[in-house]
Amino acid sequence: MTTPPASDAELLRLDHQVCFSLHAASRAFGGVYREALKELGLTYPQYLVMLVLWEHGPEPVKRIGERLRLDSGTLSPLLKRLEAAGLVHRERSPQDERSVIIRLTGAGEGLRERALPVPRRMLAATGLTVDELRTLRSLLGRVTSALDEG
Amino acid sequence: MTTPPASDAELLRLDHQVCFSLHAASRAFGGVYREALKELGLTYPQYLVMLVLWEHGPEPVKRIGERLRLDSGTLSPLLKRLEAAGLVHRERSPQDERSVIIRLTGAGEGLRERALPVPRRMLAATGLTVDELRTLRSLLGRVTSALDEG
DNA sequence: CGCAAATCAATTGTGCACAACTCAATAGCG
DNA sequence: CGCTATTGAGTTGTGCACAATTGATTTGCG
């Protein structure tokens, strides 16, 4: 694997291209997820919250936010909509009255099975090999960590 | 470089991780850009539009949308804000009255110089090597193309 | 030519992201 | 113990993303 020289001009262009590709890829994924999740009545961010709850059980809003890198300004209304849809239930923590625990309802648990085929469909739609996906995941994780330092 | 076997469970998890990493990385970039662009008075999507105009000169809304993968529902209000900020000017195309040409004002042209240090700062903030950035760009481009096929 | 289909921009409505703020509850220091 | 600082959730306001629709203009078929 040769490394072509990186001119100043290419470096500047590379930044634009990486940032733009990231932005575009994120929205492209969103579009495909929108299709795949339509029949479940979930948006992609709502699906991410459901994944957390399916995997980890009842969790406080704060903890969900840490896992998904989202703050209360985003989660509060989103969780309100999930509650209105009958998928989750909110309850104040008895230990700490500031904290609100999010718990799946029966309907929320039940949705899990219908969501199972979604990831495999997405995986196929990316057109990447498993190795490439691993590389992508790794690079994205490192970028996010580095950017979040500043 | 060995290829560990991919279990069914890992495949499912890999999809979640890639999608989530993409989502998170995109927002992490947005946050850093927000900082870097604050003194220019631009948001990241507005900056992308300015990049297109700086590079290609006056272009119709349609063409900008194709380059940035954005539709008129997003661009119309965004361009209105750029116009209100005195950075661009809108004019109906004489050749085709349906089309609206976006043209930089003097202030819009002038902003270019102040924006020059931004990409280098971003590049450094990613913490990746040039080769890794090239790999990332390539993978993201392929994913977006594949996803946009469906 | 005349009219139906396509095209382009804009608008409307919903939802996400995030900064800035409020308010209640808790932790922790003197 | 009392008071201050911090924490957790929610609210408000701005802006982006996108589906669906509207309205004006152009294209192109018959």
TrEMBL record, chains A, B:
Keywords noted in UniProt: Cytoplasm, DNA-binding, Transcription, Transcription regulation
Cross-referenced InterPro entries: HTH_MarR-typ, MarR/SlyA-like, Transc_reg_Sar_Rot_HTH, WH-like_DNA-bd_sf, WH_DNA-bd_sf
SMART domains assigned to the protein according to its UniProt record, in alphabetical order: HTH_MARR
Major location category of this protein: cytoplasm
HTH marR-type domain location: 15-145
Signal peptide (UniProt feature, chain positions): none
Pfam families from the UniProt entry: Staph_reg_Sar_Rot
Localization terms from the record: Cytoplasm
Recorded superkingdom: Bacteria
Protein name as annotated: MarR family transcriptional regulator
Organism: Streptomyces lunalinharesii
